[in-house]
Inverse folding.
C-alpha cells in the first residue's frame, strides 16, 4: 500500500468547476442554454474555498445551474470588467445575458433562493 500525502489526497477528492478565462468567458456563457453562476476566486482565499466547495456540492443536485470559476489573480481583465473588489464574488448569466451579482452566504438553499431572485429580474447591461 502506498502512502498518499494528505494534500494530494485532498486535491484528488476536490471537485473542480470548469474554468473561464478572459479569452473564452463571453463565448462559453452564450453557449450555456440556462442559468450560469460564475465564481471569482483566488488561491489562498479561505472564503473562496468554502464557496467553491458549496458550489461543487450544488452541482450534484438536479436544479443546479451551470457553474464556473474565474481565477481573479490570472484573469485581471475580467476582475476589472466586473468591478470585483471583494472575493468571493458571484455573477449570474442566463443564455449569455447578464443578470447581476449573486449575493448569498455559502449554503445551497440560500444560494438557490438568491439565484431565483436574480433571474426574476430582467437582464441588465454587464458592467
Amino acid at each position: 500500500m502506498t502512502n498518499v500525502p494528505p494534500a494530494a489526497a485532498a486535491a484528488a477528492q476536490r471537485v473542480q468547476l470548469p474554468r473561464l478565462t478572459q479569452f473564452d468567458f463571453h463565448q462559453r456563457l452564450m453557449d450555456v442554454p440556462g442559468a450560469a453562476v460564475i465564481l471569482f476566486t483566488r488561491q489562498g482565499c479561505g472564503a473562496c474555498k468554502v464557496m467553491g466547495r458549496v458550489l461543487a456540492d450544488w452541482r450534484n443536485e438536479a436544479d443546479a445551474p451551470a457553474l464556473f470559476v474565474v481565477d481573479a489573480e490570472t484573469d485581471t481583465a475580467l476582475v476589472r470588467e466586473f468591478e470585483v473588489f471583494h472575493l468571493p464574488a458571484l455573477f449570474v448569466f442566463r443564455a449569455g445575458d447578464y443578470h447581476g451579482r449573486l449575493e448569498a452566504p455559502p449554503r445551497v438553499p440560500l444560494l438557490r433562493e438568491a439565484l431565483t431572485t436574480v433571474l426574476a429580474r430582467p437582464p441588465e447591461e454587464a458592467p
Observations:
- DSSP finds five helices and four strands in the chain.
- The helical segments are 6-13, 25-30, 46-58, 76-81, 108-120.
